[in-house]
Amino acid sequence: MDSIRVGIVGATGFAGAELARLIAQHPVFEAVALTAGAEAGTEIGKLYPALEHAYPKTTLVPHDDESLLSCDVVFTAVPHTAGMQHAQRLAEAGVSVVDLSADFRFSDKDRYESIYKTTHTAPELLEHAVYGQPETMRAELVRLAEEHAQGDAVVVGCAGCYVTASILAAAPAMHAGLAQEASPVIIDAISGVTGAGRKATAKTHFCSADESVEAYGLPHHRHAPEIAQAYARLHPRLDDGGLVHVIFTPHLAPLRRGLLSTVYIPLAKQTTTRDLHALYEKHYADEALVSVLPEGVWPKTASVEGTARAHVNVSVNEEEQVAVCMCAIDNLGKGASAQAVQCANIVCGLPENTGLELLACIP
């Protein structure tokens, strides 16, 4: 098979560098353009020596470099508002975009603007973009693959790390209609500091983050509406525009990478742990990158570090009839860059796990 030319906008951030690592091992994708802002002109191997062997003497180019326009697909690993700017230019040139920012996660322009407090400057792309969470949006991504094969530029707005783990933890229960519609779903999620980006802040500085765990973003974190939107799509009685009420609390932990989401779902009917676990096994039986662990084996971040995989398990508090649903992912892997590659694989007509069958280090 001929190689597929890809570019990475924002290759010096943690997600961008992780994309470069994954694409270097991909059997079909060829990275032909790696961009940076202030660090343009620097060799990527000097910033990330781990990438030197894969990208010898490869110089980072500016974000507006013309080489991006010759790509088949470009990954935009940039903050929100920047994603839409790059996507507009690339789509106009006929290049498909897989965006890792939040700019294409909501199909409704007003909804996006109310949550992110900024104007969306590419509403025509937003209208046709597909949410990049393959396990729950596969049919829509396959439709984009048909458009991409016809030469049309398409846009994927990848789900974020907290949202991905929270979706995968709850999806089988939601899809089966087990959630009480009137009761809120409560989510406690813990992430490593790389989820906050490469630039250190007072919160993520070593002296603040080391040996400390803290909650943040309360009372209304902006990922909560995205999770609620995904749950409503899954719930058979709410996919006509209803709403799942979500209480979401993120926590920062002294980890480099890794994310664990625990989702508490009040159940609409009597269920046991054994029955719910069997439901989860059946739901994810054909998924290439989601593993349902055996009963009593709980997801942990170390088991998925550096991989594209999600580890899921579930328990039922049978006295209270609350499902406790857990998912561990690598926040830079399945929570960002690996999921972006998974989406790009689908868009390009490849098996979605191409280049992503990675194992975590042991121990």
Automatic annotation (TrEMBL):
Pathway(s) annotated for this protein in UniProt: Amino-acid biosynthesis; L-arginine biosynthesis; N(2)-acetyl-L-ornithine from L-glutamate: step 3/4
Job description of the protein: Catalyzes the NADPH-dependent reduction of N-acetyl-5-glutamyl phosphate to yield N-acetyl-L-glutamate 5-semialdehyde.
Active site location: C161
Localization of this protein: Cytoplasm
Residues in Semialdehyde dehydrogenase NAD-binding domain copies: 5-144
Keyword field: Amino-acid biosynthesis, Arginine biosynthesis, Cytoplasm, NADP, Oxidoreductase
NCBIfam families linked: argC
Alphabetical list of Gene3D superfamilies matching this protein: Dihydrodipicolinate Reductase, domain 2 (3.30.360.10), NAD(P)-binding Rossmann-like Domain (3.40.50.720)
Name this protein carries in UniProt: N-acetyl-gamma-glutamyl-phosphate reductase
InterPro entries: AGPR, AGPR_AS, AGPR_dimerisation_dom, AGPR_type-1, NAD(P)-bd_dom_sf, Semialdehyde_DH_NAD-bd
Top-level lineage group: Bacteria
Assigned EC number: 1.2.1.38
A biological-process GO annotation: L-arginine biosynthetic process
SUPFAM superfamilies the UniProt entry points to: Glyceraldehyde-3-phosphate dehydrogenase-like, C-terminal domain, NAD(P)-binding Rossmann-fold domains
Pfam families named among the record's database cross-references: Semialdhyde_dh, Semialdhyde_dhC_1
Any GO CC annotation of this UniProt entry: cytoplasm
Organism: Slackia piriformis YIT 12062
Gene Ontology molecular function, alphabetical: N-acetyl-gamma-glutamyl-phosphate reductase activity; NAD binding; NADP+ binding
Catalytic activities: N-acetyl-L-glutamate 5-semialdehyde + phosphate + NADP(+) = N-acetyl-L-glutamyl 5-phosphate + NADPH + H(+)
Predominant location category: cytoplasm
Similarity comment: family membership: Belongs to the NAGSA dehydrogenase family. Type 1 subfamily.
